[in-house]
Write a structure and sequence with these properties.
It is a single chain. With about 210 residues, this protein is mainly alpha-helical. It is built from six helices and four strands. Helix 1 packs antiparallel against helix 3.
């Protein structure tokens, strides 16, 4: 399947300017909180405060995603990468608490504060404020061709799936929201998603 990527245009330039301005300002204001969270992660369990992982971004290009570590060291090696076809209609967020998640990690995940460091990814241009959440190469490798259309735009800190009850939907439904966003993306839609995101986090439905 041939995938046509949209050309760069004035909208893309305005969006990039918005992302760079907003993320830079947020980092300047939130650095004391970021430093405190890093200290809390370090004191809670052995290992680095920052977790780095390769994700797939715009036009299928890999990049390094930053987040606060929320699991014990070595947890990733215990995770089995499943073909999406075997679980795409299963709940995206299975019930119960993952025993690999640390005490502070559980709090960070519940409040989405573990993703705060991805403001750095936005500054670097790897990500946008709004867009499909980036996946790991292992998962993306199992996607059918149509699913790769979600890479026509930069991945985001939040997205359409996150404000439509992420904990209550299946993986297939999440990707459908991602593809819908790529088709409909606009400044107005981005603003609506950004305004709804805090509500979803506070109600516990955006994680």
């Amino acid at each position: 399947m041939n995938i046509e990527f949209p050309p760069r245009n004035s909208h893309a330039a305005v969006r990039r300017l918005r992302d760079l301005t907003a993320s830079s300002l947020a980092l300047a204001l939130l650095w004391p909180i970021i430093a405190l969270l890093a200290l809390m992660v370090k004191l809670d369990s052995p290992g680095p405060a920052v977790y780095r992982q390769t994700r797939v971004g715009y036009r299928g290009r890999p990049f390094t995603l930053y987040k606060f570590r929320t699991m014990v060291v070595g947890a990733e090696a215990q995770q089995k990468i499943e073909d999406f076809r075997t679980h795409k209609f299963q709940p995206l967020k299975p019930p119960g608490r993952d025993p690999r998640v640390t005490r502070i990690g559980w709090m960070l995940r519940r409040t989405s504060l573990d993703e705060l460091l991805q403001l750095l990814n936005v500054v670097k241009g790897d990500m946008s404020l709004v867009g499909p959440r980036p996946e790991t190469p292992g998962i993306v490798d199992t996607f059918p061709p149509a699913y790769h259309l979600r890479h026509q735009t930069r991945p985001g800190l939040t997205g359409l799936a996150q404000v439509n009850g992420l904990v209550d939907i299946t993986y297939h439904e999440k990707v459908m929201y991602d593809l819908e966003y790529v088709k409909r993306q606009s400044s107005g839609l981005d603003l609506a998603i950004l305004l709804r995101t805090p509500i979803m986090i506070l109600t516990g439905k955006g994680r």
